[in-house]
């Protein structure tokens, strides 16, 4: 069953202006303890996926933070079958990396339903709702309309005893300024009603690392929380760190 997301497609001229230039992912040093979100449906998406070419959020050729995501990542994060970029099962044998291509960016990526760059409400409210917005060094760019303070942020995700880490590289699924769920402290449910009320999309690498029961489904549930780079342990998610 299809489980997808997500991106705010912009006219190319405007998108070129709004490409995010994010801070280094290790900007956080002290290791803040962020709230844990529990029993959240997580679906799977991947760079190069085209779910619905007629939908504004039906393609993973770009992300809301990078209108050249497919090229910058290195191509299809999966296998090309009959001209389509499809997902694939990932295993620990090669660190959950893709088997048919060499990624230029971290294959452990995800999205959350808060776009702080191209969603007007998300950008307008980010200084008030994003916990690290007033901290150094993000406070220096929080008013910059060309830079995201969500992109490349680290997230810890847990599923049935498996704990994996990934970086935010897109926004979704379904909603783009769900502050109550994403940043709330009371374990609020996602506002999204689609894809079995999913509150997160994860990459094939995270799908495999978390030992999801479905390769491309909408039944697996996770717990997750933001983490600072200082809290990210060694693992395959650190082999390539996205900093662009």
Q: Can you characterise this structure?
A:
The chain is α+β, with helices and mostly antiparallel strands. It has a single domain (12-23, 35-238), classed as Barwin-like endoglucanases, CATH 2.40.40.10. It is built from five helices and eight strands. It has helices spanning 12-17, 69-73, 120-129, 179-183, 204-209, and strands spanning 37-44, 79-81, 84-86, 109-112, 154-159, 162-171, 200-202, 221-227. The strands form two sheets. A six-stranded mixed beta barrel has the order 1-7-4-6-5-8. The chain has a two-stranded antiparallel ribbon with strand order 2-3. A hairpin with a 2-residue loop joins strand 5 and strand 6 (162-171). The chain is globular, with a radius of gyration of 16 Å.
Inertia-based shape: globular
Number of helix segments?
5
What structural category characterises the helix and strand content? alpha+beta
Give the mean pLDDT. Answer: 90
Quantity of strands, as a count: 8
Order of neighbouring strands in the sheet with most strands: 1-7-4-6-5-8
Give the CATH superfamily. Answer: RlpA-like domain
CA radius of gyration: 16 Å
CATH topology: Barwin-like endoglucanases
Give the low-pLDDT segments.
Answer: 1-22
Which CATH-level-2 architecture? Answer: Beta Barrel
Query: What percent of residues adopt helix (DSSP H or I)?
Result: 10-25%
How many angstroms does the end-to-end distance come to? Answer: 32 Å
Tell me the strand percentage band: 15-25%
Top CATH class = Mainly Beta
Total domains: 1
What does the main sheet amount to? 6 strands, mixed, barrel
Order of helices and strands: HEHEEEHEEHEHE
């Amino acid at each position: 069953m299809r489980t997808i997301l997500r991106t705010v497609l912009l006219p190319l001229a405007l998108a070129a202006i709004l490409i995010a230039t994010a801070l280094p992912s290790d900007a956080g040093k002290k290791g803040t303890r962020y709230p844990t979100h529990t029993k959240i449906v997580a679906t799977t998406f991947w760079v190069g996926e085209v779910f619905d070419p007629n939908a504004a959020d039906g393609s993973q050729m770009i992300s809301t933070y990078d209108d050249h995501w497919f090229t910058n990542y290195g191509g299809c994060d999966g296998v090309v079958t009959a001209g389509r970029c499809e997902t694939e099962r990932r295993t620990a044998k090669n660190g959950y990396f893709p088997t048919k291509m060499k990624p230029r960016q971290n294959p452990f990526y995800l999205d959350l339903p808060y776009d702080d760059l191209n969603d007007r409400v998300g950008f307008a409210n980010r200084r008030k709702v994003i916990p690290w917005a007033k901290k150094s060094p993000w406070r220096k760019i929080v008013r910059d309309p060309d830079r995201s303070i969500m992109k490349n942020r680290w997230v810890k995700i847990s599923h049935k005893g498996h704990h994996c880490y990934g970086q935010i590289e897109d926004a979704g699924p379904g909603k783009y300024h769900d502050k109550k769920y994403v940043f709330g402290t009371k374990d609020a449910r996602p506002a999204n009603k689609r894809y079995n009320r999913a509150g997160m999309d994860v990459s094939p690498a995270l799908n495999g690392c978390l030992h999801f029961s479905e390769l491309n489904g909408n039944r697996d549930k996770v717990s997750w929380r933001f983490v600072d780079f200082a809290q990210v342990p060694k693992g395959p998610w650190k082999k390539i760190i996205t900093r662009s």
